[in-house]
Amino acid sequence: MTKEEQLIMNFRDLFNKIAWLNKPKMEDRLKGYKPSEVHCIEFIEKNRETNVTKLAESFYMTRGAMSKLTKKLIKKGLIENYQKPNNKKEIYFRLTDQGKVIYNIHEELHKQFIERDKAVFEQVTEEQFDSMLRFVEKYNKHLDAEIKKQGLTTN
Amino acid sequence: MTKEEQLIMNFRDLFNKIAWLNKPKMEDRLKGYKPSEVHCIEFIEKNRETNVTKLAESFYMTRGAMSKLTKKLIKKGLIENYQKPNNKKEIYFRLTDQGKVIYNIHEELHKQFIERDKAVFEQVTEEQFDSMLRFVEKYNKHLDAEIKKQGLTTN
DNA sequence: ATCATTTTGTTTCCCGGTCAACAATTAATC
DNA sequence: GATTAATTGTTGACCGGGAAACAAAATGAT
């Protein structure tokens, strides 16, 4: 196996483990709220004028999936939708007060997870950090170009 | 956002894009075979004495899911199962000739994807590579320890 | 202004994975 | 050796997301 493959595989494994490890605590503190729901709430709070299409593109999911998810969140009273006066097509979302409670709990948990892994990150020099960031950003740009070349669209 | 978060987020995005970008070519050359099926075939070929439980642990999925998946692969004639003479409980899998054909096509595609991203990796020095590998391995070990601490098990 | 094209969001059907309950076998404990 | 506990694999109910067909609105072309 080449180093490229090793690196990719190790990172993939890393993310599987992180998700696996975070799940129980998430479910404990955020009972009744699925990861996808919380993730959606997080995005809506952090981005202005979010609609179904933007959510789909960001999460690499279909508009259909996000349509259902946002409908559920509305039903649960976590988000609400609004439109602009001059546009009858696009529908945007914002958090309700209840949604913000969930958002804050999630942020807090997130900090705990960072804290849990602090030991690892402390051993990384600033130099290494920047090097990795440069790499991953370069790689992302490369893929963006490839995606554009292929002309892929969100379903 | 801290550098830690930035790094993690960028990598997550990276993997989404890779999956998104590889999908169409995979579906083209491996028509009729789903990513999960191919992934499963790959693992069985690369690991000795694979059973449902080992697959579940490696893929961070449930035994139920892998049980269904392997049953489907058997039905399609891509894998076959066998047991050891002194153990009536554990059931292992190996590829059939037809399964090996799929395996080889996948390997070939994999090389093409590596080739596509070669430009990025070429700009990485050996030093950087090793540095990143060390980091991700350290992080993985840290998480393994955390998982062990939590006493998590595959469902 | 009219008509075609594109964008946005929704809905139905289907598939894949989880969960939980289960039987069968093996390992551990006494 | 008998009994209890743990492991392994399977099944059915359930749910989340994808694919595709669709309506409504906005944009473009003429």
TrEMBL record, chains A, B:
Superkingdom in the source lineage: Bacteria
Keywords: DNA-binding, Transcription, Transcription regulation
HTH marR-type domain: residues covered: 4-141
Example GO molecular function: DNA-binding transcription factor activity
Record protein name field: MarR family transcriptional regulator
Protein's organism: Pullulanibacillus pueri
Keyword Transcription regulation set for record: yes
InterPro entries: HTH_MarR-typ, Metal_resp_HTH_trans_reg, Tscrpt_reg_MarR-type_CS, WH-like_DNA-bd_sf, WH_DNA-bd_sf
